[in-house]
Predict the structure.
Amino acid sequence: MLSVDLNCDMGEGFGAWKMGSDAELMKYASSVNIACGYHAGDATTIRRTVETAIEKGVAIGAHPGYPDLEGFGRRPMSLSPQEVFDIVLYQVSALKGICEATGGELHHVKPHGALYNQSAKDKILAIEIARAIKRIDGNLILYGLSGSCLISAAKELGLKSVSEVFADRAYEPDGSLTPRSEPHALIKDHEKAFSQVLQMVTTSTVTTANGDKVPVNADTVCIHGDGDHAVELAKTIRDGLVGNHIQIRPYYM
């Protein structure tokens, strides 16, 4: 049976804020990426989100980003390779420690926002991210955009990787995500988002904004957890995939 992982970014609030929707989202996701405090989240939110993920039985990932709370980690930064290594090492180590202290296990790492997008095209950044992850635990899996430098960096360093596609984002002809500054970057129609997911999972292609089909590897599908209707979108996509006889499960190598 064909299978795919559904991942969702979580723990991106502060204190009790947003915990309810995160718990609801975990009914539909098979893996979660938990903010590590630099772009969002705090100690209490991280701990509570980890505990909820353990309770729900979903695979837990670290979601490290740039030190940019005001910009939610979505503003590009010019850090040195060593600084990128250090911020990833710090955030992933913290998340891994909280997982283990609460009886869980860290499964993967997925960079957030601008760090993700820049490292998708910048091999030096991608290598530093992969190097930091491997230094912490060589068994961790790196989630990266399909066809990106993150995937090739993981391969170069002997790290496990999973190719990611996006349910609610438009694609450019080179296989990159349409920048959020563009008017049609976000797919807000749930049925359209599901159609894109089904195409990517079953045909390993995605239709770009100009109508071209480009190849993708859809090992895991991201559903953003900070959207206004994230729970409804997650349910639509999970129900649709299951209805097409596609199994939803975490990606294990």
User: Anything to note?
Assistant: The mean pLDDT is 94. The radius of gyration is 17 Å. DSSP finds eight helices and ten strands in the chain. The longest strand covers residues 3-10.
